[in-house]
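User:
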Amino acid sequence: MGMDALGDIDPWNTSKDEGLSSNEWTSEERAGSIGPLIEDSRPSLDASIRNISLIGSTEANDTLGRSAWEEPGLTRNIDILSETNLTGNGSSFLGPFGATAFPGTSGTSQEETHHGLDESLSDWLKKVRDTYKPLGPDIVVIEQLPDKEGLLFKHTNYLVRHLVALPHAESNNDRSVIRRYSDFVWLQEVLLKRYPFRLIPELPPKKIGTQNADAVFLERRRRGLTRFINLVVKHPILSKDDLLLTFLTVPTDLSSWRKQAIYDTTEEFSDKKITHSFVKMWQKEISEQWNESEATIEKSIELWVKITVSMERYERRVKFMAKERAALGSLIHEFSVSTPKLYPTEQSSTVLDINDHLSIIEKHLKDTTEISNERTTEYSTSLVPNFRVFIDILISLRDLFERYRIMAGNNIPLLQRRVELNNQKLESMKDKPDVSGVEYDRIKSTIQRDKRTIAEELNRAWLIRECILEEFTIFQETQFLITRAFQEWSKLNSNYAGRTVNAWEKLSENLMDMPTSQD
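Assistant: Predicted structure:
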């Protein structure tokens, strides 16, 4: 995006200005008396942001534009990622995000600037992607303990063990802690509070109907918890969280620790300021990619779930075939016991030779049953989890879209309009000697407070942009999970198909000399 385009940036306004007159909050009579929309409790920003000035006049859109994720009946929030909402009609609030040029760019052509921005963005994206390795091995294993605890309501305990040394953790031989399902819920909740715009995976359900005591359900839940904690540990930002470290290392009962400890769950943006370099390299194409991804996420989840279910069904079919083969082997054995009575050996001994070959068939069925059992075990413990973890990642992206739509909105257009109206009121008061000085100071104080709030909300809006782009960038690395899943699927089926074919070929050779006549 060329520098001329950056000069028009107005991060608070939408491109539509119709319907303003119906907004009771922007009427001139109300503008001077409206209290602060947001408490001025956040840390002050640097002077370049704080000294944002108002140039000219513009009308705010009371509808604030429709977000790409918005559904009818939901509160309308600004789509911060949309370039439409960073471009105003008329004037702009000028500051570090609306300057006509950035340091070091004067005298350069638009083509040179665009090329430089592309290189800067590419370097930034590569650096972020390099921090995430979703194909890396799992470093946390979870085992379900056999004994349940609790006097009235029994609960399942899990042994959570990390396989590598964790940063800032005491080095000891025991890397295991005991956790229950509610501890995982607590961890997810604090991560969502601290990092609402990060890819945070969902937890498996605590129970489905009355299945909370079912062995199959408990095993599925254990695997779901394993996927959850490893996705968190592999995340470049979440993995550094001190409460995650507490979850993995504190040997005491975590519920007791939570009651006694004082821990901070403040949103990660509370003490941060957006960097000038990020604003400089932002390009509107990023918003378009984000919106396209959001538009297809539900369909992608639906299709991948069906693919995974097909894999699980095939696993069950193979398991059923293994049982059928085992049953067939038993039937052949019982039948071979009765054949000498049907065909007395006194008349011909060929029946004994036939029985010997029936024993070979029985052994073949036993061998192929073992192959099938190994196949289903590997499907269940290795292959299917590779497909299921991708479901978890897609759902975490969908949830991020949803949280963004609900939580990323702001009052900047409303505050902008109020500042304009109050400035107009101050101008009209200058030539009126009977105007109260207290009223003049009150309106002036309101303007200053609103400008501070605008600066803070603008800073947060850009921090959300940066955070969203980081998450969407590391999400790009997860495409290789698709590759790994199908490579493992192909390798596994090729291996066991080859072993099965070899077993059948060996059986065919052994049955070549099975008696077909008395000669």
